[in-house]
Structures are given as structure tokens and as C-alpha cells.
Design a protein that fits this description.
The complex is a heterodimer of chains A (about 280) and B (about 300). Chain A is mostly helical and about 280 residues long. Chain A is built from twelve helices and no strands. Chain A has helices at about 5-10, 20-40, 40-65, 70-105, 105-115, 120-145, 155-165, 170-180, 185-200, 220-230, 235-240, 255-275. Helices cover about 35% and strands about 30% of the residues of chain B. Chain B is globular. The chains are: A mainly alpha (about 280), B alpha/beta (about 300).
């Protein structure tokens, strides 16, 4: 150890308090490096980014467009529904697997032992997941605007971008909770166990049989989808099949409240478990 | 809480399911000392450390850091930590890892200073995932000291290091203690504890079975090893008073004895060809083996 650097070690007061600007810096540094990691390992992120737009173009635009002979209402519904599908993946799988893997590797234990600000780790992951959702939404919107032939206005696109990006939060929270429970190997399985029923019960791909419709309320995707459909003023696939048209009564408060409650509940459960077990 | 203690476990017991990890265990870390915590696998070393770091809660007794709860983040800003078996993000570069940990502290060293102190400057721009096992340990050491801690927790810090790097880390640790930093070290390398520690605590089955300076621990084991070239047979020597064991190894007789001086005198008298005498005091390794075997029996 050289004399100069040692003087640096002991020379200053080490009783300094953590100022707010230092605390902010800790949060920013954590987020910055979380983003850098994702940029440097694009192979991990690419499937989550490419899958939604590929499936939307294939099934939502080409297949559905062909089957409906270019019906604009169907095109609008497809856009809204595939957007919801697109933001579910990064939240549930990205978040869940990352957290489960890093937990298994002891990184969370180290962060708990170090004086890392308690929320910095989760917040940086959350910002990353929101960023992913925004990229997914941007790509789906680009495809819709270029080849979707659906007559959605730029303002409506902006509205859906905002709603669905924020709407990924409940899925992040559920993914996070799975990540705190499952091992890295079992997390994708558990995430699928929630993801697939959510997707199908959400009524994203086909009208649900009447007997199954009462179960729709179990899927957060159902509520987010309703918010999007409301914004574009089109009915859901169920409503279309029943011939009831878009629901006009009631505001979006119920949907927003459910999505917020899911987010808060699962985040709280996950944070509690991380603090206790790591 | 003893006012001189930076970290203290008092009367701590901790069970995991049916296994008693710590049983009414006491531990104190004083200012500017290097305390080595030794013990066979499963003795409770890691549990003791994790209680002090707030990673587990004691079933009874108390764990204090700087007189406060280890769960308090502000308290943990006075400590640095180097753990075993932590996989850090392979994509991040060495400098970035050190900067990130530095950002958790109020007045850290610059990443450059931390790397200079730990001889890792040449690795600054390398992705962590491309480092050798030994280099990773050195970088983790830099991450442990970047916050200028008053108390350092080091868990097996020199595993995987080559001799040169290990000696450099030892020199750095001695210098840190000299500068007033306290260090709590768990290690399997007894020569590491022997070379560095001011005080040693030996754990077995969740209890402290011995504690003191290395010399005090060595003196608990009242034996010496005599090695020499002689024509005397092991059978004969083993009958002498105070001789505990005799073996012949490549022409040399290896004698373990509690009264070495007397045995050497008898060797000189009994064998005119007696030569190449070496007498070793029991090291920490012998003391450790004997103590933990006693505890196990």
C-alpha cells in the first residue's frame, strides 16, 4: 500500500453523514449500471423485445386483417390486445428471472450487508423494466402505424403508450414476487404458471366462452386491456362476440384501482420477503 | 455493550430448524485489531458474521454494531464487507463495480484510490466476468474498502490468490489495522490467522472453545516436534518419558513430545551419530486441531 493512498484512507473524517445528494447519487449509480448491464448483454433482452412485435405483425395484423377483411374495429382491438401481451413478458419474466438469479448468486445478500439504500436495487430493476416496456410499446406502435391500417390517431397511440408502459407495473410486481420465492431454475416455470392463465383469461386472443367469463376478473391483463379499449373506444372481443358493443357506463377508476392494488400488494410481499430472507 | 467494542455478540443463540448454529456465543471486536474467527466447517462462523451484518436475527441474545442494530443502514455505512460465493454482474467493469459500492457511502475513496490500495488498477477497464478467481477476490477487496470503513468483514479473503497477491493483501490488511481499522477475518488458512491476527476465536459446535492471542492458543498445546537423523529405533524412543509419538520418515525420526528439552538430552547421550536436529513449537494448526478434536469428542 503506498503512503499517499493510505493517507487518503485515514486522512479524512469518516463520520460524515449521508447527504441527500449522496443518496440520490447512490440511486442514480445503481440505475445507470443496471441499464449498462442490459445494454452490454443484449442477447438476454432481445427475445423479450422481439417476440411481441413479431407475434403482433403475424397474428394481429396479417392474420386478423386477412380474416376480418380489413375491419378497422378488429384492427384496433388487435393492437390494444397485443400491446398488453407485449408488456406482460418483460415484467413477469425479466424481473422474476433476474431477481431469482441474483438472489441465488448471493448478490442480494451482499447488498443487504452493504449499506446499499434499501430500495435502490428494486427501483433500478423497476426502471429497467419500464424502459423495456416502453421499447416494446414503441415497436408495436411503429408496426401498427406503418402497416396496421387501423385509423388510430397519434393522440390515441400516445395514450396507449403511456397506459401500457405504466400498466406493466403490476406484472413487474408479480414477477418480482415470483423472483423472491423461486430459484433461478424454477422462476421461468412459475412465471409461466401465472403468465399463461393471465393472458388467456384476459381475453386477449379470442372471445371467452360465457362460462369462463366470470373468471376474467382474476387476470390483471383483463383490466389493463379494458383501459386500452376504453381509450380507443372499441369493444372487447367478448363484447364483440356477444354483440354488446363497447361499455359506456362507468369510468376507468375500477381498472386503475385493481391494477394499483395488485402492484402495491405484490411489491409489499416481495419487499417483505427480500428484507427477511434476501 | 462494552464501550470499546465495535461489534458485539452477547449471549447469542441461533438455531436453523433442528441444528444449533450458535449456543450462548460471545464475541467482541475491539478498535484497531484483527480478529480471526476459526473453526471447522459448520462450527457457526458464518452464522456469527451474518448476525453481525443483520442478515439473520438471533433467537436470543443481542447483536450490535457500533452500539446499534446491524439492521440500521446508517450503522452499516461504517463497515466494509467481502463475502464468499457472491457472483457479481459479469458485464460491469471493475471500476464500475467499485464506483457502485462507493456510492453507498457518505465519503468514499475514489475508485482510483481504492484500486491503487488493492493493486487492481491494471484491471480497471476489464469486465468482471473475464477475471480469474484470484483477481475477483482482489476486486471484492477493493469494494470492501472503498467506503473507508472502520470495521471490515472479510470471509476467506485470500482463497484463489497466488502467493504474491496473497502477501500483498496481507500487507494491506496489516497496514489498515495500523491505520486504526478493525478487521474480522474468517479463514481456513491457519497460517493466515497466525500471520495476521491480534486475537483468535476458535468455534466448534456453535460455542467458543478458545480465544486469545496466537501465542496464548499455541501455549494451550503443550508439545513440540523434534526431528533428527539418528540410528535409534522408533520403538526405543517411544518408551521414553514424555514422548507421545514417534515415526521414521525418510531416514529422519519425527518425535512429538511434551518435554522436548529432556528428550533432546537423552538423544545426544544415547546416539553418538545423532545430527541435524530441528525442534518446532506447536503451531496454530496443531493447536487448532487439538482444540477442535477435544471439542468434538
Amino acid at each position: 500500500m503506498s503512503a499517499t493512498t493510505l493517507a487518503t484512507f485515514q486522512g479524512r473524517s469518516s463520520t460524515a453523514e449521508m447527504t441527500n445528494s449522496r443518496l440520490r447519487r447512490a440511486y442514480l449509480t445503481e440505475t445507470k449500471y443496471e441499464c449498462l448491464r442490459a445494454l452490454r448483454a443484449p442477447a438476454f433482452a432481445l427475445p423479450f423485445l422481439l417476440l411481441p412485435i413479431t407475434l403482433y405483425v403475424l397474428f394481429g395484423i396479417l392474420l386478423a386483417g386477412n380474416m376480418s377483411h380489413g375491419d378497422k374495429t378488429i384492427a384496433k382491438i388487435m393492437f390494444v390486445n397485443w400491446s398488453v401481451f407485449g408488456i406482460m413478458g418483460p415484467g413477469m419474466f425479466g424481473f422474476g428471472m433476474f431477481v431469482a438469479t441474483e438472489r441465488g448468486q448471493g448478490l442480494l445478500t451482499l447488498k443487504r450487508a452493504l449499506p446499499a439504500p434499501p430500495a435502490a436495487y428494486l427501483l433500478s430493476k423497476l426502471i429497467m423494466a419500464l424502459l423495456f416496456s416502453a421499447i416494446v410499446m414503441a415497436s408495436v406502435i411503429a408496426a401498427a402505424a406503418l402497416i396496421g391500417h387501423n385509423g388510430i390517431s397519434p393522440a390515441q397511440y400516445a395514450g396507449i403508450m403511456f397506459v401500457d408502459t405504466l400498466g406493466s407495473l403490476p406484472f413487474c410486481a408479480i414477477g418480482l414476487f415470483i423472483g423472491t420465492l423461486a430459484s433461478a431454475k424454477s422462476a421461468p416455470g412459475f412465471a409461466n404458471l401465472a403468465y399463461l392463465p393471465f393472458m388467456h383469461l384476459g381475453g386477449l386472443f379470442y372471445p371467452l366462452p360465457r362460462s369462463v367469463q366470470p373468471l376474467e376478473f382474476l387476470s390483471p391483463a383483463y383490466y389493463l386491456d379494458k383501459l386500452g379499449l376504453r381509450l380507443i373506444a372499441v369493444p372487447s372481443l367478448d363484447q364483440l362476440a356477444n354483440g354488446t358493443g363497447p361499455s359506456s357506463q362507468g369510468g376507468p377508476l375500477l381498472e386503475i384501482a385493481v391494477l394499483a392494488a395488485v402492484t402495491v400488494l405484490f411489491t409489499a410481499l416481495a419487499v417483505r420477503r427480500l428484507a427477511r430472507v434476501g | 455493550m462494552n464501550p470499546d467494542s465495535l461489534a458485539e455478540l452477547s449471549g447469542v443463540s441461533k438455531r436453523f430448524a433442528t441444528v444449533v448454529a450458535l449456543d450462548n456465543f460471545e464475541l467482541q471486536v475491539r478498535p484497531a485489531e484483527l480478529l480471526a474467527v476459526l473453526g471447522p466447517n459448520g462450527a457457526g462462523k458464518s452464522t456469527a458474521i451474518s448476525l453481525l451484518l443483520g442478515l439473520h436475527q438471533p433467537d436470543s441474545g443481542s447483536a450490535r454494531l457500533f452500539g446499534d442494530s446491524p439492521l440500521n443502514v446508517a450503522t452499516r455505512r461504517k463497515i466494509g464487507v467481502m463475502m464468499q460465493d457472491v457472483a457479481l454482474a459479469p458485464e460491469l467493469r471493475v471500476r464500475e463495480h467499485i464506483e457502485l459500492v462507493g456510492s453507498y457511502y457518505p465519503d468514499p475513496l475514489s475508485a482510483d484510490d481504492a484500486m491503487t490500495l488493492t493493486a487492481t488498477s491494471s484491471l480497471a477497464a476489464r469486465p468482471y466476468g473475464k477475471l480469474s478467481g484470484g483477481q475477483k477476490r482482489q476486486v471484492q477487496f477493493a469494494m470492501a474498502i472503498v467506503g473507508r470503513p472502520k470495521l471490515l468483514f472479510l470471509d476467506e479473503p485470500t482463497v484463489g490468490l497466488d502467493i504474491h497477491s496473497r502477501e500483498r493483501m496481507w500487507a494491506a490488511l496489516r497496514e489498515l489495522v495500523h491505520q486504526g481499522v478493525s478487521i474480522i477475518l474468517t479463514t481456513h488458512y491457519l497460517e493466515e490467522a497466525e500471520a495476521l491476527s491480534d486475537r483468535v476465536v476458535v468455534l466448534a459446535k456453535g460455542r467458543a472453545i478458545a480465544s486469545g492471542t496466537v501465542d496464548e492458543l499455541r501455549s494451550l498445546v503443550d508439545r513440540k516436534r523434534i526431528s533428527c537423523v539418528t540410528s535409534l529405533s522408533p520403538d526405543l524412543v517411544s518408551t521414553w518419558a514424555g514422548v507421545q509419538a514417534v515415526t521414521r520418515d525418510r531416514g529422519r525420526l519425527q518425535i512429538t513430545a511434551s518435554n522436548a528439552d529432556m528428550v533432546v538430552r537423552k538423544l545426544v547421550l544415547a546416539d553418538a551419530d545423532f545430527r541435524e536436529l530441528e525442534v518446532h513449537r506447536a503451531g496454530l494448526a496443531e493447536a487448532f486441531t487439538e482444540l477442535t478434536q477435544e471439542a468434538a469428542s
